[in-house]
Amino acid sequence: MNAPTELKWAKKYPELGTGPIPVESCISPEFYEIEREKVFMKTWLKVGRVEEIPNVGDYKVKKLAFAKTSVILIRGKDQKIRGFHNACSHRGNKVVVESGEETFGKSKAAVVTCRFHGWVYDAEGALVNVPEEEKFSPCFTREENDLTKVHTDIWEGFIFVNLDPSPEVTPLKEYLGDMGEHLSNFPYDKLSKCYSYYTYLDCNWKVAHDAFAEAYHVSTIHAGSFPNAFSSGLSDVQLMGPHRTTAICLSLKNEPTPVAKIANSLAAASLVSKRGATMLPPSINPSRREDFSFELSVLFPNLLVHVAENIWFTHQFWPMGPGKTLWEGKYYLAEPKNNSQRWALEFAQCLQRNAWLEDTGTMEDTQIAMESGAKKFMHLQDEEILIRHGYHTLENFIHAK
Are 63 and 145 part of one and the same domain? Predict the structure, then answer.
């Protein structure tokens, strides 16, 4: 057995401890119900981007299976984006019938209409038309039957909702705190070419989340897609309340494949290349390390935001049950200016997609092994500090009054 090295992150953050983590929270139906109620029903959750609904009357419907609801996000005539539960005030039917996890639509009049009986709501949620209204009893009034509002706020173009009728922490800026400052002033809107993926996984949301929150696995799981490309060590780890961030760094001695070298020369679309810093705010890679690849940031509870020169991407993990998760991955790049750059972007996103397939390929096996009961704990090494902080934060939310 090799002599242990100094546990630098444990030394920096001793309050997190160094002991093993129980697996119970990943397999217990009872724990799932508690975290659903105390975390997902009460915290700010990212549900979209402003560019998805750019014009007056544009709307998006996002399913939130853990809450047995979906939310309508609609841009009003005042350009403000508001959120509402997708439930008609008449007999509870969905106002907009979804065609998938995310559904988009347009209305020149900035209204949505329930297909069941034609009740019409404007972009401020007000009930503006009821067919055969005269046949309802005198106690019925439009003013008392608006759509049910959902707290909605925007940060850096990201649309968040909070399903709690009276959120303890509001507005969103206060909830994000230092992390909001850390990731601000990056040109998210300028890198608008999006490659979007999703899949349903038979695992707990934390099992899926944890697979993307460390670099210890890169040399093994990604030996095919990214051979010897990244360092397994983290840099500039910062814990910011319930949120956390770190830098992921390259192995500079690694030589890209001939095809990758050509693609990298045409467009800065791949993480596996030396990065510049013209887009980065001063808070990211503050020492301007030459081997910096990208910032890996976790916004509690279920959003990972990664930023790099000319690239940003997200992972989001939606609980659908104790052992079921919806994973959504979105990879953003600058629009190509010619066919050569388009080819380079396609090459980069295919490489990234393959890496994400390698990541997701571990998750269901992890869940099955945990549910066997053979192991009661998982052991984390020092470079898995973001995962340790995640369970520490979750416990704090679970036990909060």
Answer: yes
Give the bridge partners for 243, in sequence order: 240
Shared domain check, 107 and 192: no
Q: Which domain holds residue 239?
A: 180-399
Tally the C-alpha atoms within 13 A of residue 149's C-alpha that lie toward its C-beta. Answer: 13
pLDDT per residue as tens digits for the range 64-74 = 999 999 999 99
Mean pLDDT of the chain: 94
Confidence of residue 2 (pLDDT cuts 50, 70, 90): low
> What does the DSSP assignment read for 153-193?
EEETTEEEEE--SS-SS-SHHHHHHHHHHHTTT--GGG--E
Q: What is the pLDDT of residues 262-286, one digit of tens each?
A: 998 999 888 888 778 899 999 999 9
Burial of 389 (0-12, 13-18, 19+ CB in 10 A): buried
**In this structure, are 211 and 106 located in the same domain?**
no
Q: Domains in the chain: how many in total?
A: 2
194 and 153, same domain (yes or no): no
| Residue 1 pLDDT > 60 | no
Query: Which 3 state secondary structure label does DSSP give 3?
Result: coil
Answering whether pTM is above 0.85, one says yes
- Separation of alpha carbons 212 and 253, rounded Å: 24
How far apart are the C-alpha atoms of 59 and 240, rounded to whole Å? Answer: 33
State residue 273's pLDDT score. Answer: 80
Please, are residues 236 and 285 in contact by the beta-carbon 8 Å criterion? yes
d(C-alpha 326, C-alpha 2), whole Å:
40
Q: How far apart, in whole angstroms, are the C-alpha atoms of residue 65 and residue 58? A: 23
Task: Reply yes or no: is the peptide bond before residue 54 cis, omega within 30 of 0.
Answer: no
| CA-based radius of gyration for the chain | 23
The CA-to-CA distance between both ends of the chain, in Å, stands at 45
Largest CA distance in the chain: 83
Main-chain phi, psi angles of 290, to 5 degrees: -70, -30
Residue 21 inside a domain? The answer is no
| Angle at the Cα of 147 from the Cα atoms of 100 and 43, rounded to 5 degrees | 65
Give a yes or no: residue 73 inside a domain: yes
109 pLDDT band, cuts 50/70/90, is very high
% residues pLDDT > 90 (the chain): 84
Boundary of a domain, candidates 166, 199, 228: 166
